[in-house]
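From the shared-data thread, chain only:
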Amino acid sequence: MKTEVAIIGSGPSGLLLGQLLHSQGIDSIILERVSADHVLSRIRAGVIEEGFASLMKEAGIADRMQAEGEVHHAVEIAVGDDLHSIDLFDLTGGKSVTVYGQTEITQDLMKAREASGRRSFYEVANVCPQNFDGDSPFVTFEKDGEAHRIDCDYIAGCDGFHGVSRPAIPDGVLTEYERVYPFGWLGLLADTPPVNFELIYIKHERGFALCSKRSESRSRYYLQVPLGEKVEDWSDDRFWEELKRRLPSSVADNLVTGPSLEKSIAPLRSFVVEPMQYGRLFLVGDAAHIVPPTGAKGLNLAASDVATLYNILKRVYQDNRTDLIDRYSEICLRRVWNGVRFSWWMTKMLHHFDEDKFEDRVRDSELDFFLADENRRRILAEQYVGLPYEPVE
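Structure, as tokens:
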């Protein structure tokens, strides 16, 4: 088989890149180790920056997001019983975020991929990117017990933190940076009306909590829990009781409980690898960086990687600007580190760290400092709605 761009991974990053390339007449083949249904079963975040929403429009797949997604002009931060509104729209000159679940995004992208006629292979094994340090990269894989090879111009590794793309890069090339946090998030998804229209980030003496939503009838809630906790020890009743303790009293009475659709504990970590490319292999999204979900940046950083790679490849195929290839990592990492810093900062301010009470009080003071002044709230708002994408020139 031959193609122009081989894409490893059919999550939102790989599918979005494939659809954007398709819009410019650039061929791609997508490989995925699990089934399409398994990909759709992954429950992930759904706070979409304007840059990501614009990419969906450019790819021609934004109709359902615009019809069903909720545009949010504010987020709220609760400290004890005090509720502080961060007016994103006013503080950023008219910017906002859209709440639209990652599962819905993936579903829209899969349908568009099928309609495009471009090739995708699910449930493949032994995927191996090769020769990407030269001019003729290729990817080998097995499907239904048969060996296959894809000859291509470029390889996009969109296969996540545990994928094959990053380990394929030779030892000694990459530098890894990591911070592991001493707690996790216990998440619960339920078909219940959200407790509040806007998302609420809660700093409480019992631990952090987050009230988010997928729609007007589906809610997503999170609780900070110690790393050693097990999800089977948390019944639905125990979760709802603990969440209600952490909610501000003005909101707690609005909480509607119900059976969970999904419950899981996610450890929190920050991870970045540099560089994000080697030869003609590009690392995209979680393959290159992980952030704690506090700042709603994980999926959005992946989208900005896609935007950078797409715009570079578009210039390569349309204008023969092969000189831009080596700029991918440099451009992406500037925005990645901004997202990592913001996510680390939000995590630090909103969670309690048991190991150091002095630093806990300093973090309390820092949050009070930013909430008390409009100009300082603007700093938070501008980063939350997302920094602009850097042009490829």
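The chain has a mean pLDDT of 95.
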